[in-house]
Design goal:
alpha+beta
C-alpha cells in the first residue's frame, strides 16, 4: 500500500477548470485500486504555523501498489483531459510514503 499527499496550487481564476478536471480524474482512482481518503480545501484560518504557501487543495490518496498508481497516471481517459490540469494548476507537490 502506498500513500500520496498532494499539495495543489492553482492558477488564479482557474477554479472552475480545476474542478472540471477533478470531476473526471477522481472517479478514475478507484479503477486502479485507489481511494481518495481526503480532499481538503484549507482556509487561511486552518493554518496554525508554517512558512509554506497555503495550497488550494490537499489530497490524501492510497493505492494498493506503485504499479496501480503508475497505471492511474497512464489512464487514457484521464490523459484526454490533462489539458484542463495544465490550464488550471500552477504547481503540485507530491509526497509519497508507506505505512511503517
Amino acid at each position: 500500500m502506498i500513500y500520496l499527499t498532494q499539495l495543489i496550487y492553482i492558477k488564479e481564476g482557474q477554479e472552475i477548470v480545476f474542478d472540471e478536471f477533478e470531476s473526471i480524474a477522481i472517479p478514475i482512482i478507484s479503477k486502479y485500486n485507489g481511494e481518495l481518503i481526503l480532499r481538503i480545501r484549507p482556509g487561511k484560518d486552518a493554518l496554525i504555523e508554517g512558512t509554506a504557501e497555503l495550497p488550494y487543495e490537499v489530497h490524501l490518496v492510497s493505492f494498493q501498489s506503485q504499479e496501480d498508481f503508475d497505471n492511474f497516471g497512464m489512464d487514457e481517459e484521464r490523459k484526454r483531459f490533462l489539458h484542463l490540469k495544465e490550464e488550471s494548476i500552477r504547481e503540485t507537490i507530491l509526497y509519497q510514503g508507506n505505512i511503517i
